[in-house]
Specification:
The protein is of the alpha/beta class. Helix content is 51%, strand content 8%. The strands form five sheets. A six-stranded mixed beta sheet has the order 8-7-6-4-9-10, with helices on both faces. It has a two-stranded antiparallel sheet with strand order 1-5. Keywords: DNA-binding. This is HTH CENPB-type domain-containing protein. One of its GO terms (molecular function) is DNA binding.
Length: 870
């Protein structure tokens, strides 16, 4: 009895497609049946395996084709099973393989891409011949085209020959031929195709498409071998949490270039464009946090900005610093509203403060870190505390001069003697360039009214000659509370300083220090900091591995002030000041400066040699060996030193930390030469002992600069001290102490709970572990593998922390870390047990499958299925 759904009538269109697909199904079944009708070949095991593989593939293709036909037809069709098809195969009739093993092979082949492609191609070709009146004609045609394209991509040479013949006949143009071949993954040029047509006209063999040498595109500065070595070095450091800067990677690339071409690269060979192409090619990306301030965006209105420039112009003209421009056109953005007086440009200043911290800043832009796509990349492990911070005042005048930095620190700064950060302006009191100054300010390290007034009197005023109310100076600044307190306003009035305040929340577009200088300064400071920390971590890892103890020293004030000094150099030069004023719209006073790029210089291509690929790989490997030491690839080029360079000075620069392992290796080399080869030098024993002691002391000093064996303890504050030792104060102190002791005792008792395995008596477990080792020493094996309970005893004997309810697999993996010898013996016992007791084969069914049939009966109460044996 057939189900009611199977008796439904189909539309003519669907019936036509169904008939075609049914015929195709019968053909595939007939092919399998025909194969079964042949006699079983008398063959050896190899031929039998080949026959089984062939039958399994045919069955898998038939199953996928049947599934595809049912999807395309849209009608109910009989589902073909693997068991039914297996009964018609040669493998079953000649008993080459059991049914369950054959079905396992078929399941694996159902996931194979080639089998899926063959099944889809079979159904597509069958349905294409019978789908003229089908509603699925468009889909079938698309399947045919897609199948044909996939076949051409797998084997493009026949299609390549076909395109060449069409081009030689003039049916298509050379451009069309190149485009058609590119669709199937063949990259050729029009010149190559014309050469192929010429060869065909002389009846020569058609050259293979792989012989085309495509010279299009920009020539690479480095060969693939050197690029792969450089990418390997960069990814190594990214994975260990050390992010190299763009300058460091470019310096390594230049070193590779010199090694490959024996010449220096041109100035524009390695730049930002090459750097980002290199990152994109090797799967490396950058990450950057870029927040936006909605308050600033809303406050920077057209009225506020235009009113600010109007106030600046009126103040400058009324005090003789500038004159109105008679040819000013308000509709021309390049037109200047006022013309500055050249003689008084040095008396117009702008300034602003910025915060620099020893610890990491929160909520600000960070350094672009190199990361590997698809991997969880580590970060640098060298950190700093937040015990020190400073605010720096940056100031410049319209003449292009900048004042030296003025620092207000949270605590007394630890600045070495002779450490200087000069400005580009002359101090009238000394007649020399102004030098940086440090003072101790508030506990937040920011400018208050007193610190700002001190800066005005002691730092700004000495740089303005003949400063008085009759010969004033003009300053432009933001409306910070420290700039507008009564004391500051009184000092400005007494000294003759005219102050113009910027509109609130508009410093990001109107203040030149924020627009350019502090951006360059803080960006360079973070890059210097990242490089220093990376080199400290790299050197510390080398020392820790050498001495098997210690941790990296934190980022301290020495490195902090070095980074500040290096970052300040490029942010306050005359060119930078001029650029900042152009961005600010003050010089020239056009209110909307147009930024002009520097003209590009002519690129000079250097002479390059073209060695073969094998020599390039060998040369790249040799170059990496010269640049590396064990565990630190590329360290020598980062340190900017060779084997002959010995420099043990520590100035906080990343190069000084990168040189530390090289210096240690050089000192070890000298020490071994003194001890092992005393005949090579003419020193007596006394001089030799002096040299040994000096070398050991220098190595100890280098080690102390890189790693420390003590970890900084976190200090906790307890408010137990009182200004006056009164009776109530002493009573409160005693009560607080008793409360702490009670809490401490309660915590200690909870930790000593007998249920905690960390504090249980493990004497029995230790004895069990000793017995295991004794058995292993006496017999050479454990005789049987360890159970989960025995593994737990081993873990308790060694006090190994474990997760709650660990499985036997977790305990075996942990045993490999705890006791590798015991782990190997346990694995060997498991292997021997598996070989001794092989897996038991399944018994064949006592009932022949051919004599069993399934009978389905439909009743009002349900469906009854019964197996009937003949």
């Amino acid at each position: 009895m057939t189900p009611p759904r199977a008796r439904r009538s189909a539309s003519p269109t669907v019936s036509t497609a169904r008939k075609g697909c049914k015929k195709a199904s019968q053909r595939s079944s007939a092919s399998l049946g025909g194969a079964g009708s042949t006699t079983a070949p008398a063959c050896d095991d190899e031929d039998g395996r080949a026959q089984v593989a062939k039958d399994a593939r045919e069955v898998a293709v038939s199953l996928l084709a049947n599934k595809r036909r049912r999807e395309v037809s849209g009608q109910v069709m009989a589902k073909v099973t693997a068991t039914t098809l297996f009964l018609d195969t040669v493998s079953f009739k000649t008993e080459l393989i059991k049914q369950h093993a054959f079905l396992n092979r078929v399941r694996k082949l159902l996931k194979d891409k080639d089998v899926k492609r063959d099944a889809r191609a079979l159904v597509t070709e069958e349905c294409a011949s019978t789908s003229d009146q089908s509603e699925n004609t468009v889909h079938v045609t698309a399947d045919v085209a897609r199948t044909r394209r996939e076949e051409r991509s797998r084997n493009p040479h026949p299609f390549y020959v076909e395109v060449v013949h069409a081009l030689s006949r003039g049916d298509i143009s050379a451009t069309q031929a190149v485009h058609e071949l590119q669709q199937v993954g063949v990259r050729v040029t029009k010149a190559f195709l014309k050469r192929v047509c010429t060869a065909q006209s002389f009846r020569d063999d058609i050259p293979h498409y792989s012989e085309c040498e495509d010279g299009r595109g920009r020539p690479s500065a480095l060969s693939n071998a050197y690029l792969d070595q450089l990418a390997k070095i960069v990814k190594h450091y990214i994975r260990v949490g050390i992010s190299l800067s763009q300058e460091t990677i470019l310096s390594m690339a230049k070193n590779f270039y010199r090694d490959e071409h024996h010449a220096d690269p041109s100035d524009k060979t390695f730049g930002s464009a090459w750097f980002y192409r290199f990152l994109n090619r090797h799967g490396i990306d950058t990450s950057l946090y870029n927040p936006q301030d909605a308050l600033r965006l809303n406050a920077a209105t057209e009225h506020n900005v235009s009113n600010y420039y109007q106030r600046v112009a009126q103040t400058a003209v009324s005090n003789g610093f500038a004159t109105w421009n008679a040819d000013f056109d308000a509709n021309d953005r390049s037109s200047e509203m006022i013309i500055w007086n050249e003689e008084k440009k040095s008396r117009v200043f702008t300034f602003d403060e910025a915060k620099v911290m020893l610890a990491y800043e929160k909520g600000v832009r960070g350094v672009r870190m190199l990361v590997i796509k698809g991997e969880d990349n580590r970060r640098s492990a060298v950190t700093a505390n937040d015990a020190f911070a400073a605010s720096v005042m940056g100031c410049r005048n319209l003449a292009g001069e900048s004042l030296a930095p003025y620092f207000v620190c949270t605590t007394q700064p630890n600045v070495e003697d002779g450490f200087e950060i000069p400005g580009t302006i002359t101090d009238t009191t000394t007649g020399a360039c102004q030098q940086a100054q440090w003072i101790r300010g508030t506990k937040k390290g920011s400018f208050d009214g007193f610190a700002f007034a001190t800066w005005l009197k002691d730092h700004l005023a000495p740089c303005v000659p003949d400063l008085s109310p009759e010969n004033p100076a003009m300053v432009i600044c933001d409306g910070c509370y420290a700039h507008t307190v009564d004391e500051v306003l009184e000092i400005c009035a007494a000294m003759g300083i005219l102050m113009v305040i910027l509109p609130p929340h508009c410093t990001h577009i109107l203040q030149g220090e924020d627009l350019y200088h502090f951006g360059v300064f803080k960006g360079a400071f973070r890059v210097e900091r990242a490089e220093i920390e990376a080199m400290k971590q790299l050197a510390a890892a080398w020392f820790i591995k050498l001495f098997e103890n210690g941790v990296a020293t934190s980022f301290g004030q020495r490195e902090f002030w070095y980074a500040v000094k290096e970052a300040w150099k490029g942010a306050w030069t005359k060119q930078a000041v001029e650029k900042g004023f152009k961005m600010q719209g003050l010089v020239p006073f056009n209110r909307a400066p147009l930024w002009k790029n520097f003209p590009n210089h002519e690129r000079k291509e250097p002479q390059r040699s073209t060695p073969d690929k094998e020599s390039q790989v060998e040369a790249a490997e040799r170059c990496v060996e010269r640049m590396s030491i064990p565990g630190a690839p590329g360290l020598r080029v980062i340190a900017q030193s060779s084997d002959s360079t010995f420099d043990v000075t520590f100035d906080g620069s990343p190069e000084s930390f990168a040189r530390a392992p090289l210096n240690m290796m050089k000192l070890d080399e000298v020490y071994k030469s003194l001890v092992e080869n005393p005949s090579n030098h003419s020193m007596n024993d006394e001089h030799l002992n002096v040299m040994k002691q000096l070398i050991l002391e220098k190595q100890e000093n280098i080690t102390k600069n890189i790693v420390t064996t003590t970890r900084k303890q976190r200090s906790t504050r307890r408010h137990d001290r009182y200004d006056e030792a009164t009776a109530p104060a002493m009573a409160r102190l005693l009560a607080a102490r008793q409360k702490r002791e009670k809490t401490k005792k309660r915590t200690h008792d909870a930790a000593q709970d007998g249920c905690d395995a960390r504090f249980k008596d493990n004497t029995d477990d230790i004895q069990f572990l000793a017995a295991l080792h004794k058995r292993l020493d006496d017999n050479g094996s454990l005789e049987k593998s360890l159970t989960r309970a025995e593994l737990m005893k081993v873990m308790r004997a060694k006090r190994i922390p474990l997760p709650q309810g660990p499985t036997a697999d977790i305990l075996r993996d942990k045993l490999k870390e705890v006791d590798e010898r015991l782990y190997e013996a346990n694995i060997e016992c498991t292997r021997v047990a598996n070989a001794r007791w092989p897996k038991r084969a399944r018994h064949a069914s006592s009932v022949d499958d051919a004599n069993v049939r399934c009978e389905v009966k439909y009743h009002p109460s349900g469906v009854r299925v019964q197996l009937i044996t003949d």
